[in-house]
Amino acid sequence: MADVKEKVQQLPHKPGCYLMKDARGTVLYVGKAKDLRSRVSSYFADSADLTPDKRRMVAQVADIDYLETADEVDAVLTEARLIKDIQPPFNVRLTDDKTFPYLEITTRVDFPGVYLTRTPRPRSKLYGPFTDVKGLRAALPILQQVFRFRTCELEIRADDAKLRYNRPCLLCPIKRCWGPCAGRISRDEYRRTIQRFQRFLEGKRQPLLVAMRREMKALSDAQRYEEAAHIRDQLQAIESLADRGLVDVHVQPEVFQRDTEQGLTALARVVGRERVRTIEGVDIANLSGREVVGSLVTFIDGRPLKSGYRRFRIRTVEGQNDFASVAEVVSRRFRRLQDEGLPPPDVLLIDGGPGQLHAALASLGSLGIDGVTVISLAKRAEEVYLPGQSDPVRLPRTHAGLQILQYVRDEAHRFAQHYHHILRRRSVLGDRADSQPRGRGKRRAD
């Protein structure tokens, strides 16, 4: 415990996430903090008021790792991702499929709609994820008064001659919607409004905020305090829109829906199998050539099986050699499947081009394994490489089979990079990661 307390004093006074580990290096708990040193110190203070579970956890802590984040919002979103990936035994929240919402704009229709959603539609413009859900819900109607965007689910086409005969909903007469459903605004005018709204979301908020502050002060000077307080609450709601992450950085893969049945059927045709049910994806990441790690993700019926995810610290490869690293990961994975008497996946997807594909095939050949369809997916042009074919298969971006492959590839990449970021200090699973038993809900390092 003395060593742990000494390490706590070395933590920075910065926002971030902390990982408490036991003597075997297993992560017991993941938390977030505005000030890492102050928050973690509070667990070990003599006056700490801890729940029985927290006291039991603290008694097992032998080491602490941390990740600095850009700000508190980044810490909240990073904590959620870490908990879902690692599933520490003392974290009772965020281990399920709870997600943070997005603000979605359906830009590919004549009259875009604006929605708060946890299940985004394909090819829509997203902002978020948002950590202050209450603030987002409060801000949306305020912004609707300013920009008058629609929030209905009607299908409205600009070339529909019958629009002018429609009666708009009540939001139109109270000036909270332009009424495109009744032909009250042209497509071009409405889209300009949406573009102004997007610029507002992307940072150009000051003119609106200045006007609201001026109005609040005038009401306060006139001693109309209730009305001034109402404007103040609106200001706080709008300012809370800054409490959000970035779509590409703070990925929530579980929120993006896909037609998995159609995708698997289309994929089976591409790879020449009667059907595809199980897919495993492999990716390699390196930290300036010093820490090389591999990830393996498992999908069944087009959906991720988190208990089948594995991390690999590359043992036999010196420096940066993606081909050799792929061969090692594949060899270790399939040797373990053989030892445990488990069936191989229908499809093994390697992130990369023909070089990575040949490395995986050679590795399987050395183990005498056949019956597995091995393919690779190259990022730049999204080309699919198949064994025995010199030219890649180029599928349309809308191809359902390609979208399944992209889902698996991107999840393997995210999982590898996630592990990689943690290795900026030390492995999440400790220096003796290879000896860690497979515990309930834990990701194993193979």
Q: Can you tell me about this structure?
A:
The protein is α+β, with helices and mostly antiparallel strands and 446 residues long. The protein folds into three domains: 2-86, GIY-YIG endonuclease (3-Layer(aba) Sandwich), CATH 3.40.1440.10; 102-242, no CATH class; 253-445, UvrC, RNAse H endonuclease domain (Nucleotidyltransferase, domain 5, 2-Layer Sandwich). 37% of the residues lie in helices and 17% in strands. The chain has twelve helices and 15 strands. The chain has helices at residues 2-8, 36-44, 52-60, 72-86, 133-147, 187-201, 206-221, 225-239, 260-271, 322-339, 354-366, 400-422, and strands spanning 16-21, 27-33, 63-68, 102-105, 114-117, 125-127, 278-287, 291-300, 303-304, 310-313, 347-351, 373-378, 383-385, 393-394, 444-445. The strands form three sheets. Strands 7, 8, 9, 10, 11, 12, 13, 14 and 15 form a nine-stranded mixed sheet that branches. It has a three-stranded antiparallel sheet with strand order 2-1-3. It has a three-stranded antiparallel sheet with strand order 5-4-6, with helices on one face. Strand 8 (291-300) and strand 9 form a beta hairpin. The longest helix has 23 residues, at 400-422. The radius of gyration is 26 Å and the shape is flat. 36% of the residues are buried. The model is unreliable at 427-442 (pLDDT under 50).
